[in-house]
Design brief:
By secondary structure, the protein is mainly beta. The protein has one domain. It is 0% helix and 21% strand. It contains no helices and twelve strands. The strands form four sheets. The protein has a five-stranded mixed beta sheet, with no helix packed on it. It has a three-stranded parallel beta sheet with strand order 2-8-10, with no helix packed on it. It has a two-stranded antiparallel sheet with strand order 3-4. Strand 3 and strand 4 form a beta hairpin. It starts with 6 loop residues before the first strand and ends with a strand.
Length: 258
């Protein structure tokens, strides 16, 4: 589908995944909306919220960037916010991380490097699943500050990785083996003098029709990308997304807290 913003598997039978199902670096550039997955018998809904983890605030001065907010702070199914870029010198002002949506972890903010009374500040990462922030470079230091990770990376000499964590939903029967599931954010470049922010992790949601067998999984990871270590200052890490696995038995849904 041309407007599909998430990865949604409905398996009419048994799923046996001996590899990896991934929404890593596959967040969608789109305005968030509540994504309703299941109505509980008490009338409440299982849903991914339209706004997830909060993007990290920009920093001022010669400091490392800040980490994006975790999705779990918003809801059990929310995605992670973007990290802010780092700052190089006393008057540096970096770009803030972007907020997560229901379809994308937050994009990272651009770093800032420079000195003097006026020079470009780093730009914020998108809060609509879009691009990472463009860095602010003083003319005397071209290319020393890195861009933020996003969809795509902020345009710069020191580019970050493309991508954010995305939304993954799987509906399967109780005999299934889901193997590895990942929806991780992307990092900024490590070779910049001061690095931009990393992007946030995604949201993994698994619904078993019945009680799953004991050995139904291997690795499941929806974390934000780690902080990018520049030669002088770090960019902020992406906020962690969420993993929720549940069982539907006799029309009752139960979180398995895994």
């Amino acid at each position: 589908m041309a407007d599909q913003k998430e990865c949604f598997y409905i398996v009419n039978g048994t799923l046996t995944n001996n590899g990896t199902i991934s929404m890593t670096a596959r967040g969608a550039k789109a305005e968030g909306q509540n994504v309703y997955l299941l109505k509980n018998l008490d009338g409440t809904y299982e849903f991914v919220p339209n706004v997830g983890g909060v993007g990290a605030a920009r920093v001022s001065g010669a400091v490392n960037g800040r980490a994006g907010g975790n999705g779990r702070d918003i809801s059990k199914r929310a995605l992670g916010g973007g990290g802010s870029g780092g700052g190089d010198l006393a008057r540096s002002v970096s770009g803030a991380g972007g907020n997560a949506t229901s379809y994308s972890g937050g994009a990272g903010g651009g770093a800032a490097a420079g000195y003097g009374e006026t020079f470009p500040a780093g730009q914020a990462g998108s809060s609509l699943g879009g691009a990472g922030g463009v860095p602010g470079n003083h003319p005397s230091f071209p290319g020393s500050a890195g861009s933020g990770a996003g969809n795509p990376s902020g345009a710069a000499t020191r580019r970050a990785q493309n991508g954010t964590g995305g939304l993954l939903v799987i509906l399967i029967n109780s005999d299934s083996y889901i193997g590895n599931l990942t929806s991780i954010g992307s990092t900024a470049q490590y070779d910049a003098y001061v690095c931009g922010g990393a992007s946030g992790g995604g949201s993994i949601n698994v619904f078993f029709l019945g009680k799953p067998k004991d050995n139904f999984k291997n690795e499941i990871n929806a974390n934000g990308a780690v902080a990018s270590k520049g030669t002088h200052r770090y960019g902020g890490a992406g906020g962690n997304g969420t993993v929720t696995i549940g069982s539907i038995v006799s029309n009752y849904y139960t979180d398995l807290n895994i």
